[in-house]
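User: Sequence in, structure out. Go.
Assistant: Echoing your sequence, followed by the structure tokens.
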Amino acid sequence: MSPRRAAALRCLALMLLAAPLGAGAADKGQAFPVRAFFYDAAEDSSLDPAFKAQMTALGNGALADKVHAALTEALQDRLGPLDSHTVGRTFTTSMHVTRATSFVVDKGNGNADVLASVTAALYFTNARNGEILMTVSRSVVVPAVMAMADLKNGGARGPLFARAVDILIRDLAAEAGKRFSPVLVETRVADKVGKLFVLDAGYAKGLQTGDDLNGPGGQLIRVVYTGEQYAIAEAVLADAAGSGAVFQRFLAHAASGKRRPRTAVLVESRPERFGKDYIAQMFSELVGDKAPLSLVQINTGFSRLLNTVTQQSSLSITDTARRSPPELFLRLRVPEPIIYEAATNLAYVKLRHYETYAFADLVDTSGRVLFSAMGKDVIEDRITRGVGAGMAERREVSVKNALTDLAGKLAAIGDEKREQSTVLEGGSSAALIKLDGKVLSPRQEGVVLRKARVSLGGVLPQQVWVPVAKANLGAAQDGGKAQISVGLGFDSQDEKIQPDYVFETARVGTPPRSATTYAFCGEPESLGELRTPALLELSSLAVNQIMPGMSYAPSLPAEAARVINQTSGFASEVPWKLPPVAYCLQPVDRVTPAAEQCDEHCERGLGARYTLRIKAGSEIIGRPAMEGQFRSSGYYPGNEPGQLKALLELDLARQSQKVLNKLAEGVSFPPR
């Protein structure tokens, strides 16, 4: 080949890379329906055994064909092929059953009301990196009246589950056809700084740190830092991209124009018979835009989905890349709902009470709790001659309602703010920074930045911050200084940190009152005749809303490792940097009920003492305590002992919250 022809081809290649992706299909998100029907068929699955048996009888192939046919019809004008060139704009659309359960309510005449409930979701997934663009979920309940004798095994419920699945396939496909309209965000490479790309759009247009952007010819870059009007990205599969190259990303809806750190829901505890994946997916949807977070939804079966997709499309496993782990986590803890039946003034009528609490903690990669909140739900039903709303059904509703209430509380987190500390002394793997009165948490992650002048399309170059390397805070020194340990550089693996660079950290949530580190340790201890339900969660909520120091959740990495890994489409597990914790707190209650007093109603006095044991290792070094004198709710005589005990303990859970809040105000830690 002649030098002139080679130069012409090189020029043509650069022109193609710099050219826009074009109008039409490239500007619209497309769907690739997956011929599959996903559900957890494992023996220990939380799905109803009768559901699993019915799905086996129907056959996975037949169900997969139904799903594919319904989605193809609903999305026909937005269907597209899936290969290395279209993977950035074509989303695999797959159906996943997340919950299947049944409820039986005895009618007292030999028959029963039977409800089969199935919840499923359509995942619109970027098959290249496992990112879920959006989910469309729905629950269907199919009722029937059956003879109690026919319900001795699950076979009678099977046809109800089959009917629910048919309705779900039809309704989810129709809903997907209405809602699948992703918003395109487009940006150009305006300049380069070393190997890093400078993009002409930032968080104002919806780009966030960690986002993957797709370019011409199957190229892929990843955002490593965002400003309001610009972003800095590194190459993943884009070494040839030059200035003017256009990269795209689709959002489920229009951008908010704010920084929204990528956040995943991790379920640490949940009520019996509720799957963790179901709770996480439902809560992620409930949070939506209520909180200043970008919720990263996770399909723990992504590898299975990817294997299915590569068999049905022209996409090769070599065309995929793993996404980076999120920056923040919502730790979700949902204790068992408190349920009791109370007598009334009518012998044949009882009141059945349900109360559910749900707790969330926002946690960063150092394990520090940044914000805590609680949601609550109360349901009370009238049960006449044993007939009323089913307990299992109402329990389910109460859990969902509590999570809905909790999701609304997360708006109080507030927008992310960034703080910068000047580098005083540099180096390749460590540096010294000036704190200027800021209280940063041990091993807190941040990024080292330097200034650079770049072209962003205007007449004159502009000054921007360019990330040099991720770093973690180290030990504090006298004089308001601290060490940072520096990781591999974004542009050069051995780039030396220079004075006048800055170490930038994000601040979100409730600021701590001191730099002392603490966590909650062990199980709470009850020394009296009654126990306070959810005492650990209520105590940690009270203390963490005050933040007398820096609170940590050392148990969370174990749950994160189960969910965030290569199986679910991530490049790695979360790079936790948990520091040693100076103190731990153990809640203790001692409740002494007084004798029952009855007139028209009955009630009991409840003397309660709450203590927070402050421990340094195994040594107890403090015992702040506070007492409360409560009165139980009024109740009619004639309650079963177990039901009365649940009623009294629920009164403790309610009334203890004020005492625990006052107790938290008095928590202080001795200097170490």
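User: And one key feature?
Assistant: Residues 190 and 457 are 7 Å apart (CA to CA).
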